[in-house]
Amino acid sequence: MMNAIMYTVDAENQVELQEKTQLINQVWELQHTLEDLSARVDAVREEILKLKSENQVLGQYIENLMSASSVFQTTDTKSQRK
C-alpha cells in the first residue's frame, strides 16, 4: 500500500516537473522571439531614417532641377497681356 502511494506521488511529481519544463521552454522561446522582433524593429527604424534622409536629398535635387528649368518657372500673366 505504501509503495502504491509513493508511486502515485512520484508520478504526480513527474507530471508537474514535465509541465514546468514545458512552460520554461515556452517562456524561453517567447523571450528569444521578442528579442528577434525587437532587433527587427530597430533595423526597420534605422532603414526609415536612412530613407527619409535620401528622400530629403532627392527632394532638394528635384527642386534644384525645377528651379533651373524654364518649364517650371512661374509666369507673370499680367505682364504678358500688355
Which consecutive residue ranges, at least 5 long each, have pLDDT under 50?
A: none
The largest sheet is: none
CA-based gyration radius: 35 Å
The helix-and-strand class reads mainly alpha
Q: What is the overall shape?
A: rod-shaped
- How far do the termini sit from each other? 119 Å
Beta-strand content bin: under 5%
Query: What is the number of beta strands?
Result: 0
Helix content: over 70%
Count of helical stretches: 2
Order of helices and strands: HH
Q: Compute the average pLDDT.
A: 86
Protein name: Short coiled-coil protein
Keywords: Coiled coil, Cytoplasm, Golgi apparatus, Membrane
Subcellular location: Cytoplasm, Cytosol; Golgi apparatus membrane; Golgi apparatus, trans-Golgi network
Organism: Ursus americanus (American black bear)
Describe the structure.
The protein is mostly helical. 88% of the residues lie in helices and 0% in strands. It has helices spanning 2-68, 77-81. The model has no long low-confidence stretch (mean pLDDT 86).
